[in-house]
Amino acid sequence: MGKLTKNQKAAAEKLEVGKEYSLEEASSLVKDITKSKFDASVDLDVRLGVDPRKADQMVRGVVALPHGTGKEVRVLVLCTPDKEAEAKEAGADHVGLDEFITKIEGGWTDIDVIITMPTVMAKVGKLGRVLGPRGLMPNPKSGTVTMDVAKAVKEVKSGKIDFKVDKFGIIHASVGKVSFSPEQIKENAAELINTINKLKPSSAKGTYFKSINMSSTMSAGITIDKGSIVGL
């Protein structure tokens, strides 16, 4: 194992092995132990007591973070010509249909979110092989297939994210940046956790929240005391 750097040693000294921290403590501590030269993302890893292989235990949803994610979200709107103006006015980075479908078929995926309309899903659906593995396929459940494309663009740009439990029963999501205040990080994290709590499948037995960990892009994980979160 390589030697720890001076910053890594300093960060390690601030974390007590085996200790669980309150959400408020973790939101402050994650800033203290991050020494990256860039504005690192703050992430939550939430391990759930569900079996994602069972359709009735799949946990997926959307949440509007009170303080946004802190990063610029590149949005592509695939729509009919009559919707292009409102999509652009709402802040979409790319707007169109056939020309972008052709670009995506050629391998272009330089976007973060795709929003489209039910009336053009027949065309968009054939892109599943390219978009599916990258998590870019529009979905009515996440609000990215809608006739109100302007509203969807504004929500995504202001901090609305979608999340989905992976095959290991874990939800990974970004809840801000290290440059955020501890209060902003805490409120964003609490909003995500409470949203996940509301989505608990009725068929899930035993402990729903197995563990919750907070970390930044370049930091160690901080275990959060579930008892410190109201409503859990």
Q: Which class of the largest domain in CATH terms? A: Alpha Beta
Q: N-to-C terminal Cα separation, in Å?
A: 38 Å
Helix and strand pattern = HHEEEHEHEHHHEEHEE
Strand content: 15-25%
Q: Architecture of the largest domain in CATH?
A: 2-Layer Sandwich
User: Biggest β-sheet: count, sense, barrel?
Assistant: 4 strands, antiparallel
As for the number of domains, it is 2
- How many β strands by DSSP? 9
The CATH homologous superfamily of the largest domain corresponds to: Ribosomal protein L1/L10, rRNA-binding domain
- Proportion of residues in helical segments: 25-40%
Looking at CATH, which topology of the largest domain would you report? Ribulose 1,5 Bisphosphate Carboxylase/Oxygenase
Our Rg estimate from Cα atoms comes to 20 Å
